[in-house]
Specification:
The protein is of the alpha+beta class. It has 13 helices and 4 strands. Helix 2 (24-33) crosses helix 13 (349-371), helix 3 (36-53) packs across helix 5 (161-197) and helix 5 runs parallel beside helix 8 (234-264). It starts with 11 loop residues before the first helix and ends with a helix.
């Protein structure tokens, strides 16, 4: 006679409890997934980093290729010239008409309905070298015939605004991530040393921090970046901008970490480690540093948007990167006159990329701030 086991199968909850408690990272991730803003920010941050890493593949055109200057954006259409509905999207090439703009007296550019360009994914286009090593000519999207398509129009030199904005994300994000990494390392180290040792060491370090914080940052940025000769190599100029931003940004981070360290140094388990003779290095690395990192991670995600905005502002003034490098701030130099903005508003498109980046990192920072303490 067959015997059937009537006892119910253990639930997933019981299995999880039998296997042990969740790790701290798992708890943070589970709470972050419940935050709509945090997950939205994380998704956008990942997409921005992928766009910067694979800019050659994602950009539809070569950012240095020229076409008709100040051409308006080409709108994707699902209708042919007779108004009939078609399934494959298309754009109409822009050609100069015989009419002149009443303000700039430049020929007005309009669509050529007789020569549509079909759109598609993974199309052939301008050749490139991905990561500077892998040759290729496939682009994520564009015209199937390989012709130019300007979804965000062109600048005064006829260069595609969308492609330049995609390439510009690489420089803008690289500057922001590098500056924040240096600021975090220096600020965290100085803050923990100052807060842990206290006394004379803390007093001298804090006086130096106060001197750095007392500098008017914007005039100092402009003064320091203007010291570089115009003929200096672009890499030297870029490195100098990163050094200047980092040298003026670490002090605030050190103040925040110092405050956290002062509170942690009075906790019982830190005092117990001191009592049993643990070295200062072990106490800082094993007991204080892991508890400070939760605050540092949130501070990093909130500091990156500030650096992006600062780079865009300095680039707009001409004190950040120089051509042939491309950044969002450098692209906004064309918007320095009201007449240009009024006649060609699409050159403000890099502002949209800056806003998306600032929102993405701020939303991720807000989500991490709530999830970093799951208890």
């Amino acid at each position: 006679m067959l015997a059937f086991n009537s006892s119910p199968a253990p639930s997933d909850e019981k299995i999880k409890h039998k296997s042990g408690s969740e790790s701290y990272i798992a708890l943070v991730w589970r709470r972050l997934k419940r935050s709509w803003t945090g997950m939205s920010g994380l998704t956008l941050v990942i997409l921005l980093l992928l766009m910067a890493a694979f800019a050659e593949f994602i950009a539809p055109l070569d950012p240095k290729a020229t076409d008709t200057g100040f051409a308006p954006p080409q709108v994707m259409s699902f209708h042919d010239k007779d108004g009939n509905l078609v399934f494959q999207p298309r754009v109409y090439a822009l050609v100069e008409t015989s009419d002149l703009d009443p303000v700039t007296f430049q020929p007005i550019v309009g669509p050529d309905y007789d020569n549509p360009r079909l759109l598609g994914f993974f199309v052939k286009g301008d050749p490139y070298h991905l990561f500077g090593l892998i040759p290729g000519d496939r682009h994520l999207f564009g015209a199937t015939d390989g012709g130019p398509v300007h979804f965000l129009g062109t600048d005064k030199f006829g260069r595609d605004v969308l492609s330049r904005a995609i390439y510009g994300s690489r420089i803008s994000l690289m500057i922001a991530l590098t500056v924040v990494a240096i600021v975090t390392i220096v600020g965290t180290t100085v803050g923990m040393i100052s807060g842990y040792f206290g006394g004379t060491v803390d007093a001298w370090i804090q006086r130096f921090v106060e001197v750095v914080l007392a500098f008017p940052q914007l005039p100092l940025y402009l003064a320091l970046t203007s010291l570089i000769p115009v003929t200096a190599p672009t890499n030297v100029f870029l490195a100098f901008v990163i050094v200047v931003m980092s040298a003026l940004g670490w002090a605030q981070m050190s103040r925040e970490v110092r405050g956290k360290t002062l509170a942690l140094a009075r906790i019982d388990y830190v005092r117990a480690a001191m009592a049993v003779g643990a070295t200062d290095r072990r106490i800082i690395l094993q007991h204080i540093f892991p508890n400070v990192m939760s605050h540092v991670i949130v501070a990093v995600t909130l500091a990156i948007p500030s650096v992006v905005l600062l780079e865009s502002f300095l680039g707009f003034l001409g004190f950040a990167v120089k051509p042939p490098l491309i950044s969002w701030g450098l692209m906004l130099q064309d918007t320095s006159t009201y007449s240009v903005i009024g006649s060609y508003p699409w050159i403000l498109s890099p502002v949209g990329f800056v806003l998306i980046t600032v929102f993405a990192f701020n939303a991720l920072g807000d989500g991490l701030r709530d999830a970093i303490d799951p208890y």
